[in-house]
Amino acid sequence: MSDKTTEDKGPGIDGQMSGEGGIRPADAAVSTDKEALAVPGENLDSLQVLDEATAQTLVSVTRAMYPHDHFPDKHYARVVVLLDAKAAENGEMKSLLTEGVAGLPDLTDGQDFAELDEERQVEALERIQDGAFFKAVAGEVVTGLYSQPDVWPYFGYEGPSNDKGGYIDRGFDDIDWLDDAPDYRDHAVKERVGTEDRIDREGA
Amino acid sequence: MPAPFDHNDDSLVVIVGSGAGGGTLGNQLAQKDINTVILEAGKRHEPEDHIDDEWPSFNQLAWLDMRTTSGNWRVAKDFPNLPTWHSKCVGGSPVHWAGCCPRFQEHEFKIKTTYGEIPGADLLDWPLTLQELEPYYDRAEDNMGVTGTGGRPMNKPDNNYKVLAEGAKRMGYQKVSTAHYGQNAEPYDGRPGSIQDGFCFQGNKSRAKWSPLVSDLPKGEKTGHLEVRPESMALKIEHDESGKATGVLYADANGDEHFQKARVVCVAGNSIESPRLLLNSASSLHPDGLANSSGEVGKNYMRHVSDTCWGVFEKPVHFYRGNTMAGIVEDEAYNDPDRGFVGGFYMETIHLGPSFMAAFMNPQEWGRDFTALMDDYENFAGMWLVGEDIPSATNRVTLNDDIKDQYGLPAPNVHYDDHENDVNMRDYAADKARTLYQAVGAVKTVRTPPFPASHNMGTCRMSENPEDGVVDKNGRSHDVPNLYVSDGSQFTTGAAANPTLTIVALAIRQGDHIAEQISQGTL
Fold this sequence. Notes:
The complex is a heterodimer of chains A (about 200) and B (about 525).
Chain A: H1 25-31, H2 34-37, H3 52-65, H4 73-89, H5 91-102, H6 104-107, H7 118-126, H8 132-145, E1 190-193
Helix pairs in contact in A: 1-8, 3-4, 4-5, 4-8, 5-8
Chain B: E1 13-16, H1 22-31, E2 36-39, H2 54-61, E3 68-70, H3 74-78, H4 111-115, H5 130-144, H6 159-171, E4 176-177, H7 216-222, E5 226-229, E6 233-239, E7 245-251, E8 257-261, E9 264-267, H8 270-280, E10 305-312, E11 328-329, E12 345-349, H9 354-360, H10 368-375, E13 380-387, E14 396-404, E15 410-415, H11 420-439, E16 444-448, E17 483-485, H12 500-520
Parallel strand pairs in B: 1-2, 1-9, 2-5, 3-15, 9-17
Antiparallel strand pairs in B: 4-11, 6-7, 7-8, 10-13, 10-16, 11-12, 12-13, 14-15
Helix pairs in contact in B: 1-7, 1-12, 5-12, 6-11
């Protein structure tokens, strides 16, 4: 895919705003330039276009959207740096983020979003979850949070293995509990099915 | 004169696309001393440059040009500009495929005869039978080094497979294995055995996995009769007043246009770009698109019934260690309308890294319910359900009037509505998958709706009669005698099987046919 300059916003996925529909992680991923795909910085006092207060609020917003208690703030700060980079390239994104954050007090009875407990933060976010601001931020978290190599250990994921000879000698078949695994077919299993309550069932 | 070839050399076979169809065909022709140029839209990334990291790899290899979607399929809601995940690179979609290689079954070539009339469907039998294709399946399996065939050993069971196998055993399934798989278990054909690195979808640095990039293309290039021309985006196929194709207009890396003359043109751009190219090649002689007197170009787009089941267990699985899809249960791949649907499906292991899990497991979900699942990542197993979807004339690729790509060409729209049969099969399959994981101790399961998967078939289908399809049993256009379709667009039915093996078999067969026609002077 040819490199795109900031002027070259013609047809192509990165000319599209996520607000048109769904969280579009593919959009977020492909519009990120290659340099930013390396672990982004986490420094919030030297952003390109977002002011520090907005950025700090976005750290709280991103954590409330995707809370992992073991993750230090820096992982969320990096997502905010990615959002800032997008805002620097795209005036619409900048407005979306700035106005989105500025609109949060209307959802929280004037209280500072970052000061609220998670339950109230989530309540506020639920009211805007179908809007462009939420989707732009959530899309960036989905692609930008879980792709940081230093969060992978929290998930027990060992990442690239080719340089280490693959997993053939490093546990690719080491599961040892299957023979004694319980049979839960009579139990009610908790199954999550594609956000049924919010998205129409396919084909119906 | 050996490759590279001149634009004005009209003795060439020109193939659009270097994937399972085009790449295989290019080598087949080169081995028979037929000078061939492959125009590939993407860049050439050698395996050393592949990236074992999901998003960067996706950016490197995926087709990301502008597309739109419509219809009631879930993909249109979650991924409106990404109808499918296929490749834009030398070697095509096999560069990113996992490797499952089931053969079509006999009845899957004749679903109109077998399934009868189905409302809302456009069933047609292939003008080709399993018996006719069998010798080419043999050659395809040898060409690719498919495990478990031709005396080649199977891949060893990995963690994700072991969960599937134990669950399958408890369910009473019998046809369970690490699959006929397009990645070497042991060294073969100058390529090493798998080191189970877990990044099949991200290219394959080790070259254990077959793709034209590491196999057919270098072999063809060595003969001097094959030129692979990357960053060459086909824009239009031209023809003369007699209706014969004369060559392909294409854009190079700078966007400059060139015309490559051709004696024969073969279209192998995967099932969205192939019909798009034909539609964009409309002329006064072919007002509805080149080779489209039947009106069938773009229609009957098939993508398989697709669903994913993740099982969450009480102990670690480490399912990301190992081949991405070397595990299969074949027991449900038969036809029995008493199950509530026609056609069948396979259950195949699949794993994703945290990056893709977060994006695709449950799009649009957020909050603690979501993060609690992600936190269990180490204890995940996963399987992908792939089944036969029903061809329907309204599931189709058309051109957008007002949305264009970076070359100024109308962007394609992919319209897809699930047929009732698809929904019934998918629900049944999801139920079986969940039960299988429960049988081996899953405490939670996640049902992932269809995402941009990689099986695309049917948009230039084979037919006996010219009114019913686009090409004949050799993939040759009914309308244009020196125009062929060489990729999965030819498929008259989708079957339950992953398509790559069948695409390769058809390409080998088409190579024999084209060579014979050329030597007889009829091409």
